[in-house]
Amino acid sequence: MATYRITFARSGASIEAPDDLPVLLAAERAGYVMASSCRNGTCRTCLRQLSAGAVGYRIEWPGLSADEKRDGWFLPCVAYPRSDLTIA
Ligand code: FES
After folding, report:
1. What value does the mean pLDDT take over residues 24-48?
2. pLDDT over 70 for what percent of the chain?
């Protein structure tokens, strides 16, 4: 298991996150509240944008368009860190 650093650009806060835990859950375990609802990649309530780093998914195609993914948008409830991340 790898551990990555997730930085929240707006607040400057950062947390350590294992690669086997969705970003949303890692943030919650660290006491950082992020918006969420369905927690399964369909409602888009948790939608955030990366300014740096990469995430991966275990589901075939989470509720994002190809353009959104290219522009760094991701769904923290189902996205796993694959590098250090900076969330815009
Ligand atoms: S909480 Fe619904 S898509 Fe993430």
Report:
1. 95
2. 100
For residue 42, how many C-alpha atoms fall within 13 Å in the half-sphere facing its CB?
2
Q: Is the minimum distance from the CB of 86 to ligand 1 under 6 angstroms?
A: no
Q: Which atom of ligand 1 is nearest to the CA of 43?
A: 2
CA 60 to CA 83: how far, in whole Å? 20
What element of type H or E holds 51? strand 48-52
Which class would CATH give 3-87?
A: alpha beta
Q: In the chain, where are the structural domains located?
A: 3-87
Per the structure block, which two tokens stand in for 75? 């769904």
- Listed in sequence order, the residues at least 6 apart from 87 whose beta carbon sits closer than 8 Å to its beta carbon are 6, 7, 8, 9, 23, 48, 49, 50, 51, 76
